[in-house]
Amino acid sequence: xxxxQELRNYxxxxxxxxxxxxxxxxxxxxxxxxxxxxxEAAREMIATGDYLTVRIDYAPFHEKPPLFFWMQxxxxxxxxxxxxxxxxxxxxxxxxxxxxxxxxxxxxFDYRFGFIWVLAYTGSVLxxxxxxxxxxxxxxxxxxxxxxxxxxxxxFLYLNSTAQxxxxxxxxxxxAGLLISLAVMTKGPVAYLITALVFIVFWxxxxxQARFPFISFMLFSVIVIxxxxxxxxxxxxxxxxxxxxxxxxxxxxxxxxxxxxxxxPFYYHFVILLFGCFxxxxxxxxxxxxxxxxxxxxEHFRKWAIILLCVVLVLFSIxxxxxxxxxxxxxxxxxxxAAYVIYSLVFRxxxxxxxxSWLLGIIGITLAVLLAALPLLLMNINIFLPKxxxxxxxxxxxxxxxxxxxxxLTGVFYFISVIIVLFLFYKRSVLxxxxxxxxxxxLALFVFLPSVAPKIEQYTQGVxxxxxxxxxxxxxxxxxxxYKSYAHYFYGQKSLQNSAFYKKMKPDKFEEWLINGDIDxxxxxxxxxxxxxxxxxxxxxxxxxxxxxFVFMKREVNKLH
Length: 561
What we know:
The N and C termini lie far apart (81 Å). Strand 1 and strand 2 form a beta hairpin. With 561 residues, this protein is mostly helical. The chain has helices at 2-21, 34-48, 67-79, 83-108, 111-122, 125-130, 137-160, 170-186, 190-205, 214-239, 242-256, 268-276, 280-283, 296-318, 331-347, 354-379, 391-397, 409-426, 430-460, 462-470, 487-491, 500-503, 507-516, 532-536; strands at residues 55-56, 59-60, 477-481, 523-528, 542-547, 550-555. It has three domains: 2-30 and 62-351, no CATH class; 357-460, no CATH class; 471-555, no CATH class. It has a four-stranded mixed sheet, sandwiched between helices. Strands 1-2 form a two-stranded antiparallel ribbon. Helix 5 (111-122) crosses helix 15, helix 5 (111-122) runs parallel beside helix 19 and helix 7 packs across helix 14. It has 24 helices and six strands.
């Protein structure tokens, strides 16, 4: 009977995940840079038949390992090279993530805790959004958090078992090492850095109970490097040692410089998690106090969750490059701690505090106002256009985008939901309030994203992507000028023969050749209106049209300067 009930619970979670994550995955173009970048790497694997090498514009791409791209390749083989296939892996990873946290919550507490954790995760803003995207981080985070769980299992037994039992603990270390090895193959060595730091910090706070498990830690570390080393050896044999050196230098550059202009203050990720992981973030502050009702194992994992959250916050606050998804691994411990607080409020003796209501009210109402204000602002953007001084931004905002007129109602719905939730919490109906809050957040996002994201995309990149799609199947060159983009590769379905790599040129030399060289086929160019003049001095470039801040140009084969 218990097995059948648990099976029903797991099936219910799969159904919930499928309903939340699968619909409308392909109803909007992939966004520059990351989504298109990753999908393009997968597309070029298919185009070249080389599934070992990550490439962008057909040149070896040293910034990312291949595991996530292999998943995208598999989806593209089944569903075609499109947005749905590019995002499908993360929808599946989302379901696996929900099954994992339910399973951990059920083992540590009971099925009620597992469902509360699933509710907190699916009903928080960024965790919900990431499983409908085509970026690497959901898979990367899943591997890391699963590894942290196995490490916590190992360490609990290490602290509470006799020496004879320690031999059997190596299975947890092996599982943890294999998972981080896969995480390294997904995004890079920062996966090992995070887990190693969490392991060492936990030992530091429990050092009076036992010595540092050096042999187990070394076994974990050796297992981590096995798969990545094999891949890097194959790549080094194929391309020489420079690719590995470039990869390591890139990882170092992310830590020491503001890559691609992504900088920010030290507190950047604190703010991102407070607002981006709402409503879970409003509960988390109550979880830092020890609760005497906890069992040894519950208290043990609570400490691991707190340490993981703190390590991620401190580590990525130090890193010079500040990007939203860098701290996304914190969604797991943060939602666990939120679920822990809600569970303690409902099923234990923890008391509700007015400060939690205030925090929920302030952030919740702010979010509701933003959900309503953004579409209202864009619907009435003509009122504000005289105040926009930037030429490119002004042209973008003048884009002919058709709004339905009701998109702001999502914000109104969420505002009413927050008021109802605050009333429920005032009446100390914590379980009903929590279910209402997280469900309303998930529903608001479920409606808001497909209704607003396609319109935002029309402002930002819709016109150039439409241009690239019109050139699919044509044997021509397509180049962006003066700004960085991957959209012309993916949506133009660029072939190997039309790449700088095939021509054995560096990218800057290839661009110069396309503008002034003896080209062998028609070349098309896209640039922003703010930089068009510096390219239009070349008389061989013919302006096709200007739209939404982008200038589209063409150069025929016979038009030499």
